[in-house]
């Protein structure tokens, strides 16, 4: 039986009432094999098919099973005792691939994938099911949420939040495609897709509820930023502007997307000296 079939069968048993108290060593062995497959990049929570990102429902089921069929127990990390259903990810394989992670605050949870030649600065958090591609920088105070898919050669500026999506299992998570540069303080949530080779200005909020005014195609889109765009936040007048309680009007955020200029690309080039 394939790993996918085993996870799906175990999920069906969980829906029929299987609990952590009932889970056997064989059940936990399947879950351990599943976590190892996530960490090796063999399986992913979402993949691109026909030009669209789609969730692998069985992978998200496997992640949820790791919470539902395991007990929370005390665990040790350095001199700290913490309580969780999973230990932290072993990171010895990262050095073999030329990736480095700094201590004291950087947490890489089990079931996450980190590619080659990547950098994880502390403090940062990479959650279960996340996929961080080759050559990507996860800067200080960044969060990469559960199942988030981060491409290769991506820059996540300091204090950037990449949201996670676990439920419902059919929903695709946040995706940041190859070559993207996110400025410090950006927020990407609720399954938003940032198209490849885009440059996003500091403190920009990207979520399906906020319109993206694409000046290249002269269109308004939701839920994604087209590839090769320079994006930044602007504010438009809100429908409640004329309310008696609001003096001076009310405004709501929007995102403006234009073509990426050569000067912008030069300013976001990867610092190769950091990786020598």
Can you describe this structure?
The protein is of the alpha/beta class and 276 residues long. It has a domain at 3-71: Tetrahydrodipicolinate-N-succinyltransferase, Chain A, domain 1 (Orthogonal Bundle), CATH 1.10.166. The protein is built from five helices and 26 strands. The strands form five sheets. The chain has a ten-stranded mixed β-sheet, with no helix packed on it. Helix 1 (3-15) packs across helix 2 and helix 1 (3-15) crosses helix 3. The longest helix is centred in the N-terminal third of the chain and has 16 residues, at 25-40. The chain is globular, with a radius of gyration of 20 Å. The model has no long low-confidence stretch (mean pLDDT 92).
Q: Which oligomeric state applies?
A: single chain
Which range best describes the helical content: under 10%, 10-25%, 25-40%, 40-55%, 55-70% or over 70%?
10-25%
Q: Kindly report the CATH topology of the domain at 3-71.
A: Tetrahydrodipicolinate-N-succinyltransferase, Chain A, domain 1
Structural class by SSE content: alpha/beta
Percent of residues in β-strands: 25-35%
What is the strand and helix layout of this fold?
Blueprint: H1 3-15, H2 25-40, E1 46-49, E2 52-55, H3 57-68, E3 73-77, E4 80-84, H4 92-96, E5 100-101, E6 106-108, E7 113-114, E8 119-120, E9 124-126, E10 131-132, E11 137-138, E12 142-144, E13 149-150, E14 155-156, E15 161-162, E16 175-176, E17 181-182, E18 187-188, E19 193-194, E20 199-200, E21 205-206, E22 212-214, E23 219-221, E24 224-225, E25 229-237, E26 251-259, H5 262-267
Parallel strand pairs: 5-8, 6-9, 7-10, 8-11, 9-12, 10-13, 11-14, 12-15, 13-16, 14-17, 15-18, 16-19, 17-20, 18-21, 19-24, 20-25, 22-26
Antiparallel strand pairs: 1-2, 3-4, 22-23, 25-26
Helix pairs in contact: 1-2, 1-3, 2-3
